[in-house]
Design brief:
Layout lengths: L2 H25 L6 H12 L4 H6 L8 H13 L3 E5 L7 E5 L4
Antiparallel strand pairs: 1-2
Helix pairs in contact: 2-4
């Protein structure tokens, strides 16, 4: 592997660690599982529902039942809420709750 590629990988690793530390600091009080943290971040970044999560390549190694358990974990901590789509009532979006 080229020296530049190794330096880039090292830089990405440092950024990844900083982001992980920030996420753990923000969500640490909830003692969430790793899939729950990842799903919370995904839902905060984009419109998400259980199907879109399960079909995203980042979550390809996580089973559908694990995704559902993680969503239930987030709901139990009132970190996300389910909102029906305004056009198709069969679609339920996961929306991070807003603090007042």
């Amino acid at each position: 592997m080229r020296k530049q590629a190794l330096e880039n990988i090292a830089q990405v690793w440092r950024k990844k660690q900083l982001i992980k530390d920030e996420i753990d600091s923000a969500l640490g009080e909830y003692k969430l599982s790793r899939p729950a943290k990842d799903i919370y971040i995904f839902a905060a970044a984009t419109r998400a529902n259980i199907t879109s999560i399960s079909q995203h390549k980042y979550f390809e190694d996580i089973s559908f039942s694990t995704i559902k358990r993680a969503v239930l974990e987030l709901k139990a901590h009132n970190l996300v809420e389910s909102v029906n789509d305004s056009v198709d009532a069969r679609v339920v979006w996961l929306v991070p709750t807003q603090e007042n």
